[in-house]
Amino acid sequence: MHGTVDYKTQAQSIRLPTSMIVNGKPVAAISGKTYPTINPATGKVLADLPSGSAADVDRAVAAARQAFEDGRWSKLTPANRKQALLRLASVIEENALELALMESIDSGKTITDCINIDVPEAINSLRWHAEAVDKIYDQVSPANDSSLGLIVREPIGVVGIVLPWNFPLLMLAWKIGPALAAGCTVVVKPAEETSLTTLRVAELALDAGIPAGVFNVVTGDGPDVGEPVGRHADIDAVSFTGSTETGRRFLKYSSESNLKEVVLEMGGKNPCIVMDDVRNLDAVASHVCNGAFWNVGQNCSAISRLFVHRAVKDRLLQKLAEVAKTWIVGDPLAPETRIGPLVSTVHFEKVSGYLENDGKIVAGGNIVGGTTIEPTIIEFSRHWGKHIREEIFGPILSVIPVDSLAEAVSLANQTEYGLAASVFTGDGTRALRAARAIRAGTVTVNCYGEGDAATPFGGYKQSGFGGRDKSIHAHDQYCQTKTLWVDLSSDEGI
Asked: Hey, which residues are catalytic here?
């Protein structure tokens, strides 16, 4: 579809944002310091971005607080907030190619995924939450004739949003959609590796008519920006997506500051179960490879552990190896590429360490220049070792044979994580029983995926805390619930 388009030339012509956005204005860091953002595919510096600090967070929070308290956004009618968010989605759509190119060169994501998945899904998410704004009702509680109990939702206030580097634009949309829809103002800290699209969307938000101070962005690293966001006494809630290790820190920051609300979407070690009664192994192989290798495996819901019945194991492994070979490794800006570089040299060093193993390599296992690892499938004889316990976050799939569905479910639950899982079987009842038994926030049956904008996303155990992204449930974490109790008693006897 895009084979004749020269994305590399187009990428060289786009303007890259180099300023934070605070109170509706482009600003440098107060210290004047900058840091380079690197193109993972070339190792070259794309731009120098402001290196924020606690002082920059203070400045952004003050702007967000003023914007919240004076009601320029929080007191708008739901219908007016909806229209503003719909305009933002439309402005993003008008600049879709620019954002896709920016996302690709900043993160190493393939341009095909950016064009076909990340940007359209970000737009869809914003529109979904915008349309929900004026369709969420308050409640009236059961009471007697002399009383009226009103249960109303109010925006929680200033929200700190801390983004991951693997889906910068999409995760931004997942979080600002419901937060802004609720009437909150936000201070966003993008990942230092992938800040460009967040900065550009903040610019576009002003073009769309989002008032100054409502959507603020502070760039920088975790200790200098993320921790001050987590500890800030004038931030009412934090929504974070990233590693479980960092998520723990945000709970600590909250407990040691103002006990702000904290929503965490964290790591995963996601199981996929394939039973011997599956009807189409070719389709299974396609789904499994997509789940394991999409976005170079840099996906918290990636299929990481494959439990396959011994009766079909060899046939499925052969088909998986064949499908894996079709995942073209190369330049992320080439339309045919499906596997590009890992996001950074630091992350590459971590992931490449898992190529050393005591299993049997079924496919891949090679480093293809720079920071790129080809799709790799490793078969293990038992459910044990670092490949089984640890979140790899790269294109490496671990395979373990099983003899029954009960064994597979038991092993699937032997993890500290509980984000996502998949079950493939021809028996619908067995599929649903297994899906209910697996302790994970999302379980797909005979497919791989994360649902759609209407389904909540988040995890059990150490994969999630405090709420969910997506769906109507995502609005709850950005609202306070207030009870208004009204005395209707009267001396007039009416």
From this structure: 265, 300
